[in-house]
Amino acid sequence: MCGIVGYTGGQQAISVVLEGLRRLEYRGYDSAGVAVVADGALASLKRAGKLANLEKALDETPLASATTGLGHTRWATHGPPTNRNAHPHLDQAGRVAVIHNGIIENFARLRAELEADGVAFVSDTDTEVVAHMLASEVAAGSGLADAMRAVCRRLAGAFTLVAVHADAPDRVVAARRNSPLVVGVGDGENFLASDVSAFIAHTREALEIDDDHVVEITPDTVVVTDTDGAQVPVRGYHVDWDASAAEKDGYDYFMLKEIAEQPKAVANTLLGRIGTGGKLSLDQMRLSDEELREVEKVVVIACGTAYHAGLVAKYAIEHWTRIPCEVELASEFRYRDPVVGRRTLVIAISQSGETMDTLMALRYARQQGARVLAICNTNGSTIPRESDAVLYTYAGPEVAVASTKAFLTQLIACYLVGLYLGQVRGTKWGDEIQAVVRDLSDLPSKVDQVLETMEPVRALARELSTATSVLFVGRHVGFPVALEGALKLKELAYMHAEGFAAAELKHGPIALIEDGVPVVVVVPSPRGRSVLHDKIVSNIQEIRARGARTIVIAEEGDDAVEPYADHIVRVPACPTLLQPVVATVPLQVFACEMASARGFDVDQPRNLAKSVTVE
Ligand code: F6R
Predict the structure, then answer these.
(1) 358 C-alpha to ligand 1 centroid (Å)
(2) What domains can you pick out in the chain, each with its CATH number?
(3) What is the pTM assigned to this prediction?
(4) What are phi and psi of 99, to 5 degrees?
(5) Annotated active-site positions, please?
(6) Among 302, 376, 418, 578, which one is least packed by beta carbons within 10 Å?
(7) In angstroms, what is the span from residue 218 Cα to ligand 1's centroid?
């Protein structure tokens, strides 16, 4: 949510900052702006709308040449996405420029105080208070970093702030509290950003910045302090992917590229975790076997697509380990006084590792004494850093706002955790684990197979692109797949879509079905628990009898569904629990094609941002 870049070094700041913003635009695209420090003054430009609007304005009115600057791409919280609410925000004298991600909760009081002192505000944002406060600290004799520390002490809420001052031509200062910030360490240049993709073309060496720390970069130094000004140690890490991983690579959309990358992403998440004889070893599983044996309950917390991965995890974990497993939307978790304690294992699933709802839920769980295992795709992000253990999904950078490869790899990570618990606690025999591991190892090629047969799904999406509503139903692990299919369609094609547990239809939603309504049915394998398969075949008949147009996702060789399917999408046979990995792919392709047929921006759907860093 909001992309932030700061730069100081030997290059033209504006090009480095714009390049960073292009890579961060997925975080917010309501408006964008830049500021540079040139010849003892600030030059700034900002525009409502996508980054392209700002780039066009900069072509028409270039800013002065400068080697220090910052830039922002916004997901609006306070005030509509207009030119004047776009960041950076400047103080009255135009000497300080500040950009912000997050929400300053006490801004109304601070604004009233500043207005009482005669400060005239020019925007509706919470951020502008910071520009005026920094200016007044600097006017009182503080350096920019001291000023930032003093201001942060007075702020409540969540924020990443980055500021430059006209009198400090080679200095950028930033602070964070509950909002992402990383430093990129270059040779004679340094970077600040919401995530590493902003500077990956220049350096792969990054530093983590902790909450309530202030960082000051010059071309040759990085100094990190706490809010009292005491220098603190920092942890560095090497980013293991390069700029090409964050490019479209010839695809029309990042989403298409990321869907196509799924076989590799699934294989990477398994890599190195399966030892000889199928024995699992999970790197960074910092919880001891004894701690895992003590676990009496598992609670999965996550949001959106990651929550759907958690719903699948419940079936696998309970089946393999017999430990009760609850799955909860992270945003609801801490507000209902949940029963968690020392013997609870909380699994926090997050692609970005920065989702505020999930972060707050995990902090609450730890306060209650629970142990937290993060399943995360982003190295060095806050959620894994604050967890007791972590299992990284190696999906590579996911740029499209709609999650695809991250979801499939989250599923794999959940299976690995379930099997690992079964291994440590002895609820699964070695050969049983080995058999599932073999099935997991077959998944990359099965996903590949699905991808090769997607043309009819694309054609069907185009044909149905004028539909007003699409329903998705499934049973068992097919239910979360149905929810995920509906979410993808809502967020990309702006279409009414809902997912249901198939048997629930009869308890109300079946009233939605009228002639021609497309209903996607995720059919479990007939080779699994046959009762499940038989039941869903009855459900298909019920909806078809009421006029629905049925689109059936069924495994190869499942002939029983043919008489009731208007369209069949075949997926390779998999054990029931693993079927979501193959069954979700056609739904991703369907939503992507539907959005493109309806003329919408697949990678940047309206009102959304990739990483939701506010509650
Ligand atoms: C939907 C989607 C979102 C995210 C959710 C959680 O396609 O991407 O629903 O899954 O915002 O994000 P992370 O996984 O970063 O915590």
Answers:
(1) 10
(2) 3-246 (3.60.20.10), 254-450 (3.40.50.10490), 455-597 (3.40.50.10490)
(3) 0.88
(4) -125, 160
(5) 2, 610
(6) 578
(7) 35
